[in-house]
């Protein structure tokens, strides 16, 4: 968890150095792949994330709303911290035994290394508890959520004071990574624009006056 937040907090000039390549990749993964899950693809979709900043706003039914709220990002950090060890253990196990290797699904099962389901248990959540599925969060998770919320709020305030240089750097490396994808998207838009017939302006609405 600390490595992710440390990478996000690093100065862009430091991230550009060869010795910090892993941190740069972590920042790229966070903005390009993790945040769409956190904010929702409706908000952090390709048309937004490759051209705007995380704290920019977009019009939703006449109301300007931020691309990703502080609470949403903080909850994303909580989920990441909650499952980080599980994901790492699963990846190591499948790297050793193959992607098709089965993981234990019940307390009576073990994997090929002798680990039971508790070995792959998330840090604070339990899918088998709570009133609805995946609602069983330990009390400590709520304390961590408050901590992450304060971290995100402070990060955004500091970045704002520096002309959002960290967010702008993330936008730049996302554009560089996806330049072929962006080029194709622009060409497709131009092609559709040539094919679509010109739109006629709608007739002005008639105003009917009713005398009381």
**Low-pLDDT sequence parts:** 205-212
- The tally of helices reads 8
Helix-strand makeup class: mainly alpha
Secondary structure: number of strands: 4
Overall pLDDT metric: 87
Strand arrangement in the largest pleated sheet: 1-2
Order of helices and strands: HHHHEEHEEHHH
Rg over C-alpha atoms, rounded to the nearest angstrom: 23 Å
Strand content: 5-15%
Query: Rough shape?
Result: globular
N-to-C terminal Cα separation, in Å?
67 Å
Q: What's the number of structural domains?
A: 1
- Largest sheet properties: 2 strands, antiparallel
Percent helix, as a range, is 40-55%
Structure, described:
With 212 residues, this protein is mainly alpha-helical. The protein has one domain (2-191). The chain contains 8 helices and 4 strands; from the N terminus they run ααααββαββααα. The chain has helices spanning 2-9, 12-15, 21-39, 46-49, 70-97, 139-161, 165-177, 179-195, and strands spanning 57-60, 63-66, 125-126, 136-137. The strands form 2 sheets. Strands 1-2 form a two-stranded antiparallel ribbon. A hairpin with a 2-residue loop joins β1 (57-60) and β2 (63-66). α1 crosses α3 (21-39), α3 crosses α5 (70-97) and α3 (21-39) packs across α7 (165-177). The longest helix has 28 residues, at 70-97. The radius of gyration is 23 Å and the shape is globular. The chain starts with a helix and ends in a 17-residue tail after the last helix.
């Amino acid at each position: 968890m600390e490595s992710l937040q440390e990478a996000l907090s690093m100065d862009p000039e430091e991230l550009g150095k060869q010795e910090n390549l892993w941190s740069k990749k972590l920042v790229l993964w966070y903005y390009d792949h993790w945040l769409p899950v956190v904010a929702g693809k409706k908000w952090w979709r390709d048309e937004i994330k490759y051209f705007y900043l995380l704290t920019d706003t977009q019009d939703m039914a006449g109301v300007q709303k931020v691309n990703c709220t502080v609470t949403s990002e903080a909850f994303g950090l909580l989920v990441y911290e909650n499952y980080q060890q599980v994901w790492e253990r699963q990846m190591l196990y499948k790297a050793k035994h193959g992607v098709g290797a089965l993981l234990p699904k019940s307390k009576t099962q073990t994997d090929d290394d002798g680990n039971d389901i508790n070995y792959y248990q998330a840090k604070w959540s339990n899918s088998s508890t709570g009133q609805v599925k995946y609602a069983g969060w330990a009390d400590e998770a709520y304390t961590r959520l408050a901590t992450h919320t304060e971290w995100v709020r402070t990060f955004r305030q500091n970045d704002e004071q520096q002309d959002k240089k960290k967010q702008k750097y993330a936008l730049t490396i996302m554009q560089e990574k996806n330049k072929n994808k962006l080029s194709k998207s622009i060409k497709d838009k131009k092609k559709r624009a040539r094919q679509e017939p010109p739109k006629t302006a709608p007739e002005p609405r008639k105003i009917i006056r009713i005398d009381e």
